[in-house]
Structures are given as structure tokens and as C-alpha cells.
Amino acid sequence: MTIIIESTGIMDKLQDEFGADKLKQLVTASARWKERNPQGTESEWSKAMVLEALSNIDEASSYWTFVAARIYLQEVYARQEKLRGATVYSDFAENVERLVQKGLYTSDLLEKYSREELGELGGILEPERDKLFTYIGLKTLMDRYAAVDFNKNPVELPQERWLVIAMTLMQNETENRLGKVAEAYWAMSNLYMTVATPTLSNAGKPHGQLSSCFIDTVDDSLHGIYNSNTDIANLSKYGGGIGVYMGKVRSRGSSIRGFKGASSGVLPWIKQLNNTAVSVDQLGQRQGAIAVYLDVWHKDIFTFLDLKLNNGDERLRAHDIFTGVCLPDIFMEQVEARGDWHLFDPHEVRTVMGYSLEDHYDETKGSGSFREKYEECVNHPELSKETVPAIEIMKRIMRSQLETGTPFMFYRDEVNRANSNKHEGIVYSSNLCTEITQNQSPTEFESVTLEDDIVVTRSKPGDFVVCNLSSINLGRAVPADVLERLIKIQVRMLDNVIDLNKIPVVQAQRTNARYRGIGLGTFGWHHLLALKNIQWESDEAVEFADELYEKIAYLTIKASMELANEKGAYPLFEGSDWQTGDYFEQRQYDSKEWRELRVDVATNGIRNGYLMAVAPNSSTSVIAGSTASIDPIFKPFYHEEKKDYKLPVIAPDLDHNTYDVYRRSAYIVDQRWSIKQNAARQRHIDQAISFNIYVPNNIRASVLLDLHVQAWKSGMKTTYYMRSTASDIEECEWCHS
């Protein structure tokens, strides 16, 4: 098709919206391109003008990202109009029917919704909301998440993606179902929230599950180890990230069936998981992602901490998994005191002591059953142990963190003290992104029999954790004052994911149904601070985090309570901290509003045993045009290298009003203030927070150690990546102090 720019009307629309004066450069560039490419197609012109618009982005002219988005959007519309033979957004019902027939949408959409209902739902689509996208947000949505045909060409429009997700999540609602679909669509299409990547990608499509992450606990048996690997492979196949607790597996040199020194420890099994992560590559889109956690008292801890290092014996490395270390309070106390630390084999502890050390935690800060059992193990004459200075282990942790970003830190005593379901179990570790903390237990193999010529395997199911996530866009939802309306529909959406999910591991289905755990989180924190002109390194930011997350917690708990009143409480509610009121007591929620909610929860129950978790949100925050999670931005403005061009990345709403807040970016901002903020918000988050620490790679060991100690003492449950970079960081005064 020969391009005739006048016939498209794109330039006229852009000039009307952004102002003719602002777009003079683009008009000139368009004319020059026409002269050089008289036979050029509309698609070629569109790509050229997108690059031209992007090249004009700088700290003072961020509107160019929206100009680029509009140009690209017109190309998206043109393709769909040609494909459908209809004006965009005019044929929703027909398009759903067509895509179901082609096997690109699930047949549930036609089985659950009548033709009349589809027509009514098509009428709520708001094409104008396509204009909310930045260029990179729109491109990411269309490239990664929009439904595609078998040649990977998009077959749906942005607003249709939101509506199909809403329809999928609300399909089994009985009262005012279309109204609930409309509310879910309102929440997503206004970019007030995003759903988790698997939900965003798979909802309404015939394949894939809707949950983000899973956590498995590996039993100390050959059946347990290999069955776990199979389960992990099946989940990874459909896009799930996996956390794996290996702390129950015996250490190197342990006995097997009484034969001493027979065990090879955790290393071979971790390498096996490494191979699974590489081999099960999620339909060729990306490698699997697996994080393995081990206790700091496990005899294999030094081998474990070196797994991802770039030097040393490659036979002792597993570069494609992520590591996390589980730390009790007493270890951190010994680090501070420069005392000794003792390493044990968990199998030997079970055999000699009659209990598992990892099954205990300190019920109060400074005292409790873990340290009592630990001291019993230290003093038992028949139990072998290795003794090392605690600070030496901490040095190895920090060395690995500066080189590889891992291990993640999991403060197990704090996690379990705050666990709202401690009446039903214990939390051993976290997930791939360190924000999920839910009860875990291993699945134990019992027997294999042949029954009616069918091989039947029997196992005692453990708690295999499932993470069902979505996040509030603070940069849009808070200024719009929509949190109460938003969180109410968001909790319902998350709860419905539990019943709709098709998880290929039965014990994960069981755990999901028992606890009905969800993870309502947030992103856009730095964006919100910039809009409110609150400096990151300030008491005002800490106080704001405290106030805002208390409000989010209140609204989330209230929404889940109201849902329980409608649909019933989660099965394990009786005896939980929610039911006894300990949850509210522990967090000192004693205002009139909180006291009333506490009574309502005790009376009506709560729908979800776990409620809040702050995930990394890197991809979905890009789509929503905000900043990731609770992190500071990387830089106010920079260029990201692509294959054929540089893509400018600019902080949201960057202008002369917000620049002063944004300029204190990730590697400049004092991390001690970041910890203070997260300690304030952690009190209100019943699970955990994906909290990155940003440091230069020449940071003094004493300063890095102080950050870890501060995080632990302040009540943080986990820390995520240690993100280190080149040493020439401008204005990084704090990291040498």
C-alpha cells in the first residue's frame, strides 16, 4: 500500500491533541520521510515516526512517549480493522465468537456468557482509555500479553484484553455478574491496578494457569526429591516461578539407611533443579525460574552460598537457579556478637534428637523454642556439628550478594511470629520474589500399587503454596482517591482466581483451597512520592508509608471479611490469628475503626487466610506507566539499548515539579531510609515485600553488614536482590559513611 498520510488523519489528530507547535519537528520529519520513501507503506511510516517521536524524549518533554504511543496505536487499529473488516471496538461479540471458534479464546467465554451479554459488555469498552498508555506500556501489552493467532499476530485490542480478563475472573459470579465485570474492567482499564503476569497473559485463553508463583517443600527421601522435581517442572511449563525449600534434605556425608558418609547432600538435587529451569522453558518464551532456600545452620551452607559464583569448580555451581538463606534471630545475634555458629545435618538431628530443628521458631523476640532446640543440639554429645564464626558465614553471604545479587534473606522468626495461620503450620521459606510467606509442609510418599491394571501412587499431601497476585498502581489510584472502590473489586478478582485456576499439581490445588491465600500488593511508590513532592530520604516519606499501607490493610481486610459474609470464610479460619484477634493485637490496631473491624472479622470470618504481599511488578508497572513496586527509579532519564535503536526511559510525570524527588534515584538514595520506609509498611503487610537493596560494588563490608542488621532489627521479613553496580555513583555519600 502506498502511503498517503493525509488519508490516515494521524498527523491531524496528533496536532489537535498535543498542539501543532509542539509537533512541528514530527510534521517536518514526516514530510522528509515521504520524499525519501514515495512507495513507503503506512506501517513503515508508522515505525519511522515512532522512532522520531522517541528520539525527542528528554527530561523536559516526556509527552513524546504519548505521541509515539498514539502513532503505534493507529497502526494497531489499522491491522485489526483489516483483519476483522470492521471499525475497531465495534465488533466485540463477533470477535469473541470468532476467536473461540479458532481456538484462540477458551470456549468458557461462550458457554458462560450469552450473545446478548457479550453485546452488552462490548458497550462498556472505553477506547479513549487506550490513550493512557505510554509507548513502551502499549508495546509491552501488545507484544507479550494480547491474544495472538498461531503465527503470533495480535488478534485483540488493549481494551478487549482488560474486558476479557474481567469476564474470565467474574464468570462464576451469581449476583449482578455484568456489574462486577464492569467494575473489574474499570479498575484495569484506568490503570488503577494490574493483575499478575500469568493472569494478564492467560485469562480468557485456552491454555495456561493464572497464578504467579509457587513454593514447594522437598521431603528428605528419593521419592520426595524426584516427585518435587516433576511437580516443579509441570508448574514451570505453564509460567510459574518456583520457590523450593531444601532444608529438610540431609547434608553431604550424612547416612543413608544407616550407612555413614553415603549422602552427597543438597548439591546434586539443586543441580537437577537447575537443569529443570533451563530445560522446561515455558513454551520457548523464557527459561523457568527457581529459587532454592536453605537454613543457615545446614552443614551444606558454604557450598550453597557459592553456587552462583563465577569462579571455582564448575561442578559445584548452579548458575541458573536463585538462592535464599533462612536466618533465625539467634544467628544474627551471633553475627553482631562475633560469636560462634554451629552447623548440623537435619537428618541426624531428626534421628538423634527426635525432632526437626527447622520446625521451630522463636515465639517472642529474644526467646523461644528455636533457640532452645538449637542449644540442645549444640550441647548433645552424640550429635555431630561443625563450628564456625558466625561472621564468616555472613561474609560469604555478602560476597555472593555483591557478585551475583543473591542469596535472598529470609528472617524466619519474624515471619513465623507474624504468621496469621500459625495454628496450622510453619513457614520455612519464601518464593522466587520473597514476598510470599505462607504455611508449608512436604508431600510424603507412601506407596505404589497396581489396582485394576492401573499404577496408583499414594502420598500424604503437604502444603504446596500458591501465590495469587495483583497490585494497586499508587501513582494513579491514590491521587484519584479510588482505593476503597478499587480494593473491594480487586480482592474479589483475586479470590476468584483461586477457584478458576487449573494447577497441574494436586497438592497445590488443595493448599489453595484450604487457605485461599492472595497477595494484594502495590507499585508506583516513587511515582506517588514525586507527585506529592515528598523526598525519599525523609521522615515524611516514612510516615506516609505507615499511614497509606495501614489504610490499604484496613480496606483489604474489610473487603475479604465482606466476601466471607457472602461466600464463606476460608476453611482453616477457626483458631487463626484473624479469628482470635491476635492479628490486630500484634499490630496494635486499636482505633475505633479497627476495633469494629476486628469484631466483624471474628463474627463473619475472613475469605482469605493470607491477604497482602508486595511483589516486584517490573513488567506490569511498565504497562501501567508507573514505577516498579516500592523501589526507587533507576534514573530519571536514560536510554535502554535495543537491537536496532536506543529506547528512552523516563520517569512517569517527570517535569520541573517532580524532578527534585526523582533525582535521588536507586543508587544515590540512602538505603537506610528505604529500610525505614519498608519497616513502616511491613507492619501492615501480613506477608512480605520484594525489597531490593541498591549499593555500589565497592561498598564497605561494614556498611553492607549494617544494612542487613538494620533490616533484621526493624522487623523486615525478607530482602530480595542485592543490586550492586559500578563504583562511580554520583552523590553516593551514605555508602561510605
How would you portray this structure in words?
45% of the residues lie in helices and 12% in strands. The chain contains 32 helices and 18 strands. It has a 7-stranded mixed sheet with strand order 11-2-3-4-5-8-17. A hairpin with a 4-residue loop joins strand 14 (637-641) and strand 15. Helix 10 packs across helix 11 (177-189). The longest helix is centred in the C-terminal third of the chain and has 29 residues, at 539-567.
How far apart lie the N and C ends? 64 Å
Report the helical percentage.
Answer: 40-55%
Main sheet: strand order: 11-2-3-4-5-8-17
Q: Determine the strand fraction and express it as a percent band.
A: 5-15%
Largest sheet: 7 strands, mixed
Average pLDDT confidence is: 93
Tell me, briefly, the overall form: globular
How many DSSP helices? 32
Rg calc: 27 Å
Question: How many beta-strand elements?
Answer: 18
Unreliable residue stretches: 1-7
Structural class: alpha/beta
Considering the chains and any ligands shown, give keywords for the structure.
single chain; 737 residues; alpha/beta; three-stranded mixed sheet; 32 helices; 12% strand; globular; disordered N terminus
List the helices and strands and how they pair.
Layout: H1 5-8, H2 10-18, H3 24-36, H4 42-55, H5 64-84, H6 92-101, H7 108-112, H8 115-122, H9 135-145, H10 158-170, H11 177-189, E1 193-195, H12 197-202, E2 213-217, H13 222-237, E3 241-245, H14 267-279, E4 290-295, H15 301-305, E5 322-327, H16 329-337, E6 340-343, H17 346-353, H18 369-379, E7 386-389, H19 390-404, E8 408-411, H20 412-417, E9 444-451, E10 454-460, E11 465-467, E12 469-473, H21 474-477, H22 483-500, H23 506-515, E13 519-523, H24 525-531, H25 539-567, H26 577-580, H27 582-586, H28 592-604, H29 618-623, E14 637-641, E15 646-650, H30 659-662, H31 671-682, E16 693-696, H32 701-713, E17 718-719, E18 722-725
Parallel strand pairs: 2-3, 3-4, 4-5, 5-8, 12-13, 16-18
Antiparallel strand pairs: 1-12, 2-11, 6-7, 8-17, 9-10, 14-15
